Amino acid sequence: MIHTKDLKLPEGTDILTMPHPESAVNPRQMVADALENPIGSPQLEQIIASKSGRAEELTACIVISDSTRPVPYKGEAGILYPLVEKLMNSGVPASGILVLVATGTHRGQTDSELRDMLDPRLFELPVRVENHDCHNEENLSFLGKTGRGSDILINSDYVNSDIKILTGLVESHFMAGASGGRKSICPGLIGEKSTFIFHGAPMLADERSCALNLEGNLCHDEALDMARVAGADFIVNVTLDGNFDLTGVFAGHLEKAHEAAVAHLKSYTAIHVERKYDIVLTHGGFVGINHYQAAKAGVEAARIVKEGGYVLMVADNTDTDPIGSLAYRTMLQLLKLTGREAFDRTILSPDWTFIPEQWQVQMWNRMFKVIPQDHFYYMSPQFSDSEYRICPGEKLSDLSGLQNGTPAEHLSAAVANLKEKLGDEISICWMADGPYGVPLYE
Fold it and tell me: What's the pTM?
């Protein structure tokens, strides 16, 4: 993640930060308490006991997030091994437990990434750890259609497990309102074809498909429809603060535990602002491992930048590909070459053939409906000139005038130069929490 402690902001800059929630004094105890007192659900041990057949013949699937989400799967706040222990203590053999990475349409995790993410004790057991593959149609089960016509194609290993457990982080999500809960299944475990409506252009064009909103949110509703059909016996969701410290653990019923987590999340991620700004500075956060993921920060910045204003962003795109997939690159270039209005007309046309990951470029375009592409300045230490040529917007270094320097130094110089160009009366804000804080203009 980009270090911004050396950032020098012009006098009068508004620093927008999320309220600071109380973090867990004893994370291990918070996890244990949540498992012992589930929300809207029996305890996990009771659920296991209610399954037909002998416990030693049961199989269990624990769904986990990939490395783009800072879910505490190890350490004092680790939520994974306590679940494995409860399963084994209830008689489920370790060899019958599958830890399944909900990759959605993204790449699978490497062995080294998994070992870095997960509790080391897990690898001392005969527990299987596998990645979901949305392209492997032989391992997808068709469970029907949603009310909107989506094929419900779900990972077969999950579908065929006797005990189904979801885990994840609940944070603001710029399409589905909030992550966690049902999103472990949709899009986490679905087939690529199941994304065509869920992430289709008409659904994302609806203004209710936005951060911190579940009511009437078409993305949320579609994901929940699929999750209800696939089923989940138990979930464990967490909330974190800006330092990634545990602020809440919500275990139990698929919907009730998730709703409790979202209510808690709203109490400290919404940032109420009284004006919009000429210049918005932001960063890609932990999630911004590539340009695809950095879109989340761009969408939140678009909420509070004035029409025709400027957005300056730095992001640490450390993924194996700092931009994203070939399909994502293709759609980015379409947006860059055709412009915001033509891009929307194209993907909303009934003759348009859906391209996976077009949705993320559509979300970037929310920003370009407010500011022109040449008012967006981006910097990633991992980008070469060829990457910058693909992405809409301009190089931050062109504005900063620096040949070398840290992202914070580039951002500091760029905003100083822009202020000199536009005049002292302009308004500037720094979104200290990047994609995690949700600014609400009232």
Answer: 0.85
- Give per-residue pLDDT as tens, 382-397: 999 999 999 999 999 9
Whole-angstrom Cα distance, residue 323 to residue 164?
34
Give the C-alpha separation, 165 to 48, whole Å.
Answer: 11
Per DSSP, 138 falls in state: G
Are 248 and 32 spatial neighbours (Cβ–Cβ below 8 Å)? no
- Both structure tokens of 39: 């929300």
Residue 173's H or E segment, with its range, is strand 172-173
Helix (H) or strand (E) holding 221: helix 218-230
Same domain, 239 and 285: no
* Residues 120 and 134 occupy one common structural domain: yes
At position 304, the amino acid (one-letter code) is I
Cis peptide before 187 (omega within 30 of 0): yes
The Cα 142–Cα 193 span in angstroms is 11
Length of the chain in residues, anyone?
A: 442
CATH number for the domain harbouring residue 416 = 3.90.226.30
Confidence of residue 151 (pLDDT cuts 50, 70, 90): very high
CB 373 within 8 Å of CB 334: no
The shares of helix, strand and coil residues in the chain, as percent rounded to the nearest 5, are: 40, 20, 40
Residues 87 and 227 in one domain: yes
Per-residue pLDDT, 3? 63
With 0-12 / 13-18 / 19 or more C-beta atoms within 10 angstroms meaning exposed / middle / buried, residue 6 is: exposed
* Domain with 173 in it: 38-269
Residue 51 within any structural domain of the chain: yes
Of 318, 322, 214, 300, nearest to 260 by C-alpha is 214
Identity at 281, one-letter amino acid code: L
Show the CA angle centred on residue 218, arms to residues 214 and 223, nearest 5°.
80
- Residue 257, domain CATH: 3.40.50.11440
Q: Which amino acid is at 121?
A: R
| Beta strand pairing call for 14-16 and 177-178 | unpaired
